[in-house]
Structure formats: structure tokens, C-alpha cells
Amino acid sequence: MKNIIDLSLLFEKGRLFLSNHILTMDNEFNFKRMVVWQKAMQFASLAIDITEQLDTQKCYFKLIDQIQGASASVPQNIAEGKGRATDKDFAKFLAYSRGSLYETLTLVNLFYMKKWISKEKLNELESLGEEVVKMINGLLVRLR
């Protein structure tokens, strides 16, 4: 059994509040246990895989960099938000994560319109993105 330090009672603006942020003694980061983070990592990995398979002109490298950055930002913001002290901050970073996911999907749709990727790749990433967005939205409802 893991030794757990429960940091659920924290102090903010002169009042105590409850938080779900727990650290384990074995240095395992709690965000890694979140299914939404795990799915977001799959989403980012798939988006990056898609860009690595592109055969486009050099002038489009900025768009490729943008999709890689936006997709990586999805799990990064979930992790960063989970590491914050308040649920309000966590919710803010979940919203950032959702925005980065939408940015990624917009770029992937552009890539499809330009015929740089197949309909199958577009559908695969949109399907995974839909799963992640539903999880993020569920967490946001619970946190607010």
C-alpha cells in the first residue's frame, strides 16, 4: 500500500476549502492516473504521428509546428491544472486544454481540405478528440 499525504485542506483568501489534489510518497504524479490525461496523450501522439507522415512543401512547416504544439498542449494543460492548488485553477487549465484540442482539430481539418491527410486519419483524430472533450466537459461540470 502506498503512503499518501492528503493535502485536501488548503488555505485560500482567508478560508479553508477542499481540494482533490493528492500526492503519493513514491513520487508518482497523480495526473498520470487520470483517464482524461491518458486519452489526451494518445490524442497528442496521434496528431504528431499524422504530421510526421506529411509530405508537404517547406513553406507549410509553421502549420505543422502549430499542430504539434497545440496537440501537445492538451495533456500538458491537464497536468498543469491538476498540479494547481485550487479547483478553480484546475478548471481554467482544463478550458485551455479544450481550446488547444479545438485548435488541433481545426488544423487537421485544414490538412484534410488541402488533401494532405486522408478522411480516415481525420476521423480517427476527431473520434479520439471527441472522447477527450467529453471527459474535459464532465470534469468542468463537476468542478464548477
From TrEMBL:
SUPFAM superfamilies: IVS-encoded protein-like
InterPro entries: 23S_rRNA-intervening_sequence, 23S_rRNA_IVS_sf
Record-linked PANTHER family: FOUR HELIX BUNDLE PROTEIN (PTHR38471:SF2)
Name of the protein this chain belongs to: Four helix bundle protein
Source species of the chain: Plebeiibacterium marinum
